[in-house]
Amino acid sequence: MTVMWKIIHLDEVNSTNDYAKSIAEESPEGTVVIAKRQTAGKGRKGRSWASPQGGLWMSVILKPERTDPRLVFVGALAVVDTLADFGIRGWIKWPNDVWVEGKKIAGVLTEGKAEKFVVMGIGLNVNNEIPADLRETATSMRAILGKRLEFNEVTNRVLAHLGRWYKLFQEEPLNVIEAVKERTLLINREVTVIHSDGEISGTAVDILEDGSLLIDTGEVRVRVVYGDVSVRPGRYG
């Protein structure tokens, strides 16, 4: 099924995800909330996400037959393909970030209500200025290309790719997992994953069918369902 987008534009909101969750049950699938600015944008684990004017801050209401944590990959793939449309090579940093040349350019956050709805938040640095204290770890499309981009064109491309990947995900989720493997920077890289029970270091060898990360510690292979991944310095494609 192809999703029809219905876009709600806001000048400012605390969080597009929070706004979308508040209207999700009575709104049709494909409702998109886009704000020029977020005053309380958030990432995983409630972390703050700087959201000044010039970036793409949006949340999409989806109503799949069942909730699935692998949906986060749909948003990440849409961002990577959008970047490619503008000549930028992006990589998925499992599970929900997109990096370019070792710096974060986008993040995806999925939240929802079991069997009711999923809200997919996407934050993509487009024309926004990256604060000086973050320029070692974050970048934007404008910084990479050296020019401002047409904001609506970026938005439309993200939604077009999102609709395509969402449709593919509904038909066969494993095809999406395979696409993530092709676009991730983790496979065969030395990584450390920090999670609530401690940390695991080793070589990332695979992303499994359920979306988990498989790490070879040198002694055992460990399946990681969640956590913060750091990658040893090296080439990013």
What is the end-to-end distance? 34 Å
The name of the CATH architecture of the largest domain is 2-Layer Sandwich
Structural class: alpha+beta
Query: What is the helix fraction of residues, given as a range?
Result: 25-40%
CATH H level of the largest domain: which superfamily? Bira Bifunctional Protein, Domain 2
How do the helices and strands follow one another from N- to C-terminus?
EHEEHEEEEHHHEEEEE
User: What are the segments in which pLDDT stays under 50 over at least 5 consecutive residues?
Assistant: none
Number of helices: 5
Specify the biggest β-sheet: 7 strands, mixed
Count of individual domains? 2
CA-atom Rg in angstroms: 17 Å
Spatial sequence of strands, sheet with the most strands: 1-2-3-7-6-5-4
The coarse overall form would be globular
Oligomer kind:
single chain
Question: Brief description of this entry?
Answer:
The protein has helices at 16-23, 71-85, 141-145, 151-171, 173-183; strands at residues 6-13, 31-38, 56-62, 91-93, 97-100, 103-113, 117-124, 190-195, 198-207, 213-216, 221-224, 228-231.
Summarize the structure in words:
- With 237 residues, the chain is of the alpha+beta class.
- It has helices at residues 16-23, 71-85, 141-145, 151-171, 173-183; strands at 6-13, 31-38, 56-62, 91-93, 97-100, 103-113, 117-124, 190-195, 198-207, 213-216, 221-224, 228-231.
- It is built from 5 helices and 12 strands.
- The chain has 2 domains: 6-183, Bira Bifunctional Protein, Domain 2 (BirA Bifunctional Protein, domain 2); 190-231, SH3 type barrels.
- It is 25% helix and 32% strand.
- The relative contact order is 0.15.
- Strands 1-2-3-7-6-5-4 form a 7-stranded mixed β-sheet, sandwiched between helices. A 5-stranded antiparallel β-sheet has the order 11-10-9-8-12.
- InterPro entries: aa-tRNA-synth_II/BPL/LPL, Biotin_CoA_COase_ligase, BPL_C, BPL_LPL_catalytic, Transcriptional_repressor_C.
- Keywords: ATP-binding, Ligase, Nucleotide-binding.
- It is an enzyme of class 6 (ligase).
- One of its GO terms (molecular function) is ATP binding.
